Amino acid sequence: MAAEVVTEPTSIAPQGDFVGTLGLLTLRLHLSVGADGNPSGTLDSPNQGAFGIQCTDIQLQEGSLSFTVPAVGGRWSGTVESDGTLAGTWNQGSPIALTFSPEKSFVAAQTPSAVDGHWLGTLATPTRTLRIQLSIRSDQLGQEYCSLDSLDQHAFGLTCTNVTLSGEQFSFDVPTVRGQWSGTLSADRQTLTGIWTQRQPLPLTLQRQAAAIPPPQPLKVSYDPATAPLDAAALKASLDRELASAVQGGALAVGKPIGIAVGIVRQGVRRFFCYGSAHWNSIFEIGSITKTFTGLALAQLVTQRKVRLDEPVRELLPAGTVEKPEGAEITLRDLVTQHSGLPRLPSNFRPANPDNPYADYHVADLYAYLREHGVSKPADASFLYSNLGMGLLGHALANRFERPYADLVQAQILEPLDLHDTAVSLSDAQLERFIPGHTASGQPAPAWDQDVLAGAGALRSTVDDMLSYLEAQLHPDRAVRGIEPDAATLPSALVFSQQLQASAGPAQIAFAWLYLPEEGDYWHNGGTGGYTAYAFFNPRGDYAGVVLMNVGPDPRGSFADLLGRHISQRFAGKPAVSLSNALSLLTPA
User: How far apart are CA 487 and CA 476, in angstroms?
Assistant: First the structure.
């Protein structure tokens, strides 16, 4: 949604950089005002490795300020104090005091330095090319400051340190990604020629630009009028009409790389529709929808009395891995409901290859993090989405099961449900059906490999298997197809896993599944470097749907999410997300 502003004529929007602390997290807020007078903003959570999160619906009136951060389902509201402090409350399911203080005031140099301004270059990595943007400014004391944007990775405002200009020699570090650049300014001051070092040295030449390329703006979602609730056959005809322009010469035309596989079921009637390069048996990465399998595996082990829901996770790790804290400690329930207080990613998560970021994070790294961080549960732990937390849960359950995570899910869920195309690792035959992934900017994206954090997002699947999984959620009593020993408890575990456990922003959460009380939908989405997915089921209406795409996350919004929501709304007979507007997301960002 594009930013909207409500102001009084005398209101002056705060501008600049602000810093605040939320529990163990440091947050940085960046506010600015455009030429049209409208404010815009982004939020960084460096501890979670998240930068440039868009703020929307920014409202300023008579000294009060508020904004929404839709990516995390949170909203901040408060007042602008006379000293520039922003004092208020953050609400992401429950209100928490959060004050932002202005960072050290920046007074620009009266005469810009030789490198001040905006610069753009292209970095050729072993797997793809990345556009790199640099913004440099100097203060009145001659100190240089800069920030780096990796445009194709949608990472904005990465802070530079050790920024040094000596004659024509210029250098800086980017500690967030453990990178460093050093090089030379040309005589005409239009080119910076040098080397970017991040595990290995690569040439990176930057050219001066008149203006910076701004972050992509989130898509403004609009809605089409409600229709009568559609059945499965009518929904296919409706989607064919909605996507016709993309199929006939657009992004989903024959020969184009993008593919979308859709599966729906209503009152026992199943349908598959495939567009673009996808087929009904194409295999996709499903990303964070894996978390719902991890949640169901927990429900299975609880039902089998192999673990307790309120058992401390520490007790499922090898003895001596982490000390018992003095107060409350993180339990399995905390992990599966995203209420552990753990950050999105561990502080020692430093990928050797950003295009396959989880591949080199192993058990020793996780245990080292836990020894340093501990397993205390913060007193004010509210919903905080954590890949670390769900990955830790999957690893802990596998420890108790005494087999790897992939084997745990195979025995407890995949075999009983006869899901033979869902797996962490694919066979040679399955790899032939593994549809190639692409970034939101249209470049090929390698598959992701996950080790100790596999429970957060390692599974791959087909639309057929995913629909069978959702049908099991709708009708647990009819779910089991196999005769494996662990199949007997699965119907009860499915029912148990749907029990609501806690709040999650505007929604509620069961065993990883998010729940929308008004709609009756359980849902989860997923995204890896080259894939996005959305799945939902609605026991009240006896319908479900899944959308799988071979395009990675887009900062403007997720077409898979919007298409999934559209399907649910058409089933329910409610106003539906307009796909004609959302189709712009199929054009590379």
Answer: 11
* 392 and 537 inside one domain: yes
176, 285: one domain: no
Single out the residue in 209, 241, 275 at which a domain terminates. 209
396, pLDDT greater than 60:
yes
Residue 367 lies in a domain: yes
Number of domains in the chain: 3
Can you give the pLDDT at residue 411?
95
C-alpha span between 227 and 572 (Å, rounded):
9
The span from the CA of 583 to the CA of 124, in Å, is 30
Task: Report phi then psi at 512, rounded to 5.
Answer: 80, -35
Over 50: is that where the pLDDT of 471 sits?
A: yes
pLDDT digits (tens, 9 = 90+) for 429-457: 999 999 999 999 899 999 999 999 999 99
Please state, in angstroms and rounded to a whole number, the distance separating the CA atoms of residues 545 and 565: 9
> Per the domain annotation, does 108 fall within a domain?
no
Q: Structure pTM? A: 0.82
Q: What is the pLDDT of residue 105?
A: 65
CATH number at residue 171: 2.40.128.120
- Residue 179: which domain range? 117-209
Rounded alpha-carbon distances, angstroms, from residue 307 to 180, 299, 457 = 46, 9, 22
Question: Taking a C-beta distance cutoff of 8 angstroms, is the pair 371, 321 a contact?
Answer: yes
* CA-based radius of gyration for the chain: 25
pLDDT tens across 160-204, in order? Answer: 999 999 999 999 998 878 899 999 999 999 999 999 998 789 999
